[in-house]
Amino acid sequence: MILHIVQREFFDHLNSLRFALTAFIMAALMVTNAVVHLQSYPDEVREYSENVTAARNKLQSQTQLYSLLKKGPGELYKRPSPLTFVADGGEAFLPGSGTTDRGSWIRSTESGGSVNEIQGIWTLDYPTANPNARDLRPKANQIDWVFIITYLLSFIPLLFTFDALSGERESGTLRLCLANPISRPALLVGKFLGALITVLIPFYFAVLLNLAVISVDSWTQFGAADWGRLGMIVLIASGYAGIFIAVGLLVSAGTRDSRVSLVVLLITWVALVVFMPSTLGTLATKWMSPVQTVHQREMAKKSALGQLNADFDKKMWTKQKAQLQTDDLLNQLMALAKTSPEKAEELAKAKEEEFKAAVAKFESQKADEEELRLKAELVNKDAEIRERLNREHLTAQIVQVQRARGITRFSPAAIVQYALESMAGTGLNRHLQFLEGVHRHIRLLRHFIVDVDRADTESLHIVGIPEGMSKKPISSRALPTYEDKITFSETFNAAMVDMLLLLLLLGVFLLGAFLVFIRSDV
Amino acid sequence: MALGRRWEGRHKALPLQEHDTGRWRLEGVEKHPRMFLHKALQEKKRKEIVMLHTLIRQELLSLMMSARFLAAVVITLLLVVANTVVLLDEHENRVASYRQQETIHRQKAEAAETYSFLELFVERPPNPLSLFSAGLDKRLGTTVEIYHGSVPTLSSMSSRSLENPYLNLFSQIDLVSIFQVVLSLLALLFAYDAIAGNWESGTLRLVISHPVRRGSILFAKYIAAMVCLLLPVLMSLLMVMIQLSLARSIQLNTDDFLRIGGISFTTIVYLSVFYLIGLLISTTTRRAATSLILCMFFWVVLVLVYPNWSRFTLNPVGDMHAEGRSASQQIEQIWEEADREEQRFLANSPLKGEPPEFYLGSSGFGLNQNSSASYRRARTRRFSTSIVDAASEPLVPHFQNYYAFVGATHIRLAEKAGLVSEQRLARIDIRRAVWDERLMKFSPASRYTFATSAWAGTDLNGMLDFSRATQGYRQTLIDYFQDKDAFASRLWFAYDQGAVDWWDLPRFRFARAGIWENAQRALADVSLLFLMNLVLFMVTFLIFIKIEV
Question: Does residue A473 have a cis peptide bond before it, meaning omega lies within 30 degrees of 0?
Answer without folding.
Answer: no
